Amino acid sequence: MWTPRHVLVTASAQAEPHGRAVVERLVAAGVEDVRLLDGDRLPPLRGEDERATYARAKRTLAVVTSAASKRRPTPIPPSADFSFPIAEGCPGHCQYCYLAGSLAGPPITRVYADLPRVLAGLDEVVGTGSVTSGTAERGHEGTTFEASCYTDPLAIEHVTGSLAATITHFGTHDWPGPVQLRLTTKYDDVDGLLHLPHGGRTRVRASVNVREVERFEGGTARVGARLRALGRLARAGYPVGLTIAPIMPVQDWRERYAELLDEAAAQLPAGADVTVECITHRFTPKSKDVQLGWYPRTKLDLEESTRSRKHGRFGAVKYVYDKDTMRELRTWFEAAVADRLPAARHLYWT
Questions:
Q1: What residues in the chain have per-residue pLDDT under 50?
Q2: How buried is 41 (Cβ within 10 angstroms: 0-12 exposed, 13-18 middle, 19+ buried)?
Q3: Predicted pLDDT of residue 314
Q4: Beta strand pairing call for 143-146 and 109-112
Q5: Pair 159, 26: CB distance under 8 Å
């Protein structure tokens, strides 16, 4: 489990009951450098170079309050109707991190002290989504909310308590319509989640991959441990899922990914509610620059000349595998998932 070495607490966060509870958890966890700020501006964390800045930021947790623009639920296809923030930033060291190009400034982890205010604003968008709400394929999921768009909430749960509070809110709140909370994690410390009143309204997905890709995932739980944790959650009544990402056509990829699916099938109990999401490796020019700054010796394939150049929303450029590779991967995965996890629902391929 990750415990920060440095903690910064803004003045507004200190005024929030959840913010004060987070500080108490941090002190109980043995964090000695807890700095209570007089205002809401975080001090600069820049070091002598990019690596020094990265290292200090990854050891730092900031307890802050959310801006109104952050609290507004945001559409997040193809995963869910909306995302909302309980935290931002991640203590993991995944060399392929797609979020590297999305977060501004040093990669400090921020946890939101005004969590009750964030959760209170979700009712107004129930029933208005376009990914699951009202659709024939996924309408039974209700309005879906992603709690981990810019973080891994389980990675920091033991020092925040935010995920347990969110799961409890989704499980016990009187919603104006059917809802589902969704989160993805690369960690395995699920003890604190097993006995929560989740009401079957939270789907926990494990982000999993083959060993040749797992080696790029520093500071996370091993894939086998993630799958065992997922099995425990399924036996506790949670809907669960596999997020196979980022898929890479490594050497002997068919055999390696077949072994991964077989391992998942062995850990999940009969009758479990399981989904599968498949996401291939991609990068943007900005994320590539950031990744190479953080991990200058990475062996990750970031060669643009062998990729297809795509334009996403708002004209953003990203590099994905060429059409033939994507077709071969998709054809194999759709057949393999159906064969090895026949009861699972394959939600999407991207």
A1: none
A2: exposed
A3: 65
A4: unpaired
A5: yes
